[in-house]
Known about the structure:
The structure is a homodimer.
Chain A: E1 7-11, H1 21-30, E2 35-38, H2 45-62, E3 65-69, H3 72-78, E4 82-85, H4 92-99, E5 104-109, H5 112-121, E6 125-128, H6 145-155, E7 160-163, H7 171-175, E8 181-184, H8 186-189, H9 194-206
Parallel strand pairs in A: 1-2, 1-8, 2-3, 3-4, 4-5, 5-6, 6-7, 7-8
Helix pairs in contact in A: 1-2, 1-9, 2-3
Amino acid sequence: MKKIGRFHVLTDTLLQTRFSHLELAELAIAGGADAIQFRQKAGPSREMIKVAGQLKDLCQKSGVTFIVNDRLDWTLAIQSEGIHLGQEDFPIPLARKILGEKVLIGGSAGTLEEARKCLRDGADYIGFGPVFPTTSKADAAPASGLDLLERVVGEISLPIIAIGGLTPENIPRVMQTGVHGVAVISAVCCQKDPREAARNLRRMLESGGHV
Amino acid sequence: MKKIGRFHVLTDTLLQTRFSHLELAELAIAGGADAIQFRQKAGPSREMIKVAGQLKDLCQKSGVTFIVNDRLDWTLAIQSEGIHLGQEDFPIPLARKILGEKVLIGGSAGTLEEARKCLRDGADYIGFGPVFPTTSKADAAPASGLDLLERVVGEISLPIIAIGGLTPENIPRVMQTGVHGVAVISAVCCQKDPREAARNLRRMLESGGHV
């Protein structure tokens, strides 16, 4: 079975420059992340494939799911077990056709209609959000809020990963909607101590809203 | 047999913004280009795949070779007949493995050693340069000059496409080295009348150095 993970950390080197992708992944995993998403939209392929390969090795060694954001070419190059495709990224049906059934494919959705489309397109899970206002994405859609998130969880028969503006404070309420898990960028990558930040988030996630 | 083309025009929307990729391709083909290379390093995949598809259709209709620069994911998405891979781009041997023997794969080289490696890696042709100083690439290597180009043509048993700083004035000398053809960016895309510029270059290329 495809292991999706409940606590996804997206590595980012645009919002912060103190840590490399690999360093962030190491810290996040040490803090309890069970899925790492390599989010790097551009850059020289040969170098990025090397970075992606290092991340994949680290994740394999740690028993953590590894997901490449957007780049189907890099996914193929390192034979990544997973790829995450946003609304503007490589089309999901075509990705499924090229990558086959075994590869974990995640889709992004911010509305019920987009979530339905991810399901129809053959995604294995949905990253739904932004649930709360976020500063991690310049072009982020308006926040969906918890009510819509709960509706999506109720209607769509796929694991839902909440994303967007998540903090240790709001994660308990997010988990109460019945989501499979959460994904964060800034809440780990941009914190003073990313490992400690991840540990905190993980603890709140584990409490399942009962703290 | 794979049709490589002798007069490659790389469409560019960073150096100039007056024309879209499709408009540039139309003008270049009208002026005599027989290969169009879609050079777009970043941007939303879903939109870029659409643009690449339109370019491919135009080229097919015009009997012109179509080549995607760098992006193996977009190449797969539109089933492009060709891809060009620079030194920092997706690795050629891996691209060959994924795309198969039928797809035209070009490699970039700026030294004899790089050209030898392209040959070993299984490229179908080599884009060699910059032959002359160029302003089209911010990170361009030092110009190779005509002597090295001639040596590469003599030693490497692949079609060589000269690139970098080419103008109607120097193309006759370039053709005398025995190259298969030439590739240009600014010399078409950044000229006042791209079609007329292409026509001029084509005429000089056809003269084969005898004008």
